[in-house]
Amino acid sequence: MRILIADDDLMLSTTLADMIEKCGHEVSGFARTGVGAVRAYGEQRPDVVFMDYSMSKINGANASRMILSQYPKAKIIILSGFLTKEHLSLLECGAVITEPKPLSLERLQNILDHFNSTATGPDPSPT
User: Fold this and answer.
1) Could you tell me how far CA 86 lies from the centroid of its own chain?
2) 34 near 60, Cβ under 8 Å?
3) Are 6 and 34 in contact (CB under 8 A)?
4) CA separation for the pair 39, 83 (Å, rounded)
5) For residue 79, which phi and psi values (nearest 5 degrees)?
6) What is the pLDDT along the chain (127 residues), one digit of tens a residue?
7) What is the CA radius of gyration of the chain?
8) How far is CA 71 from the centre of its chain?
9) How far apart are CA 4 and CA 52, in angstroms?
């Protein structure tokens, strides 16, 4: 699978990218802002997006809403180091999964295995 990482923390993005590659998947690109995530999704059409909740300009929840308004089949996972999983589950942004940071390699593998087994490919075009 091709995966977009949207996170303003370079160290966390790099660590997540290394973990994704250890799980046998490809990182299609990186975005450092919510606006950048929306743009990168449209250009790359990844299979999955790991989206940080707290980013500049627009947060991950709003960026997710923007992506999903154009690509309703997008698979977005909201990550946050500041909110608990219970708080994130209350967000109505269309994310498929919400996860607290940091992710363990085992949890990441489980998430990717789930998406890989249900993969239908990226949403081909905007609605």
Assistant:
1) 18
2) yes
3) yes
4) 25
5) -115, 145
6) 999 999 999 999 999 999 999 999 999 999 999 999 999 999 999 999 999 988 888 988 889 999 999 999 999 998 887 766 555 555 667 777 777 788 899 999 999 998 887 765 555 555 4
7) 13
8) 14
9) 11
pTM score = 0.85
β partners of residue 76: 49
12: closest CA among 64, 79, 83, 73?
Answer: 79
Q: Could you tell me the domains of the chain?
A: 2-115 (3.40.50.2300)
Residues in the chain: 127
Strand, helix or coil for residue 78: strand
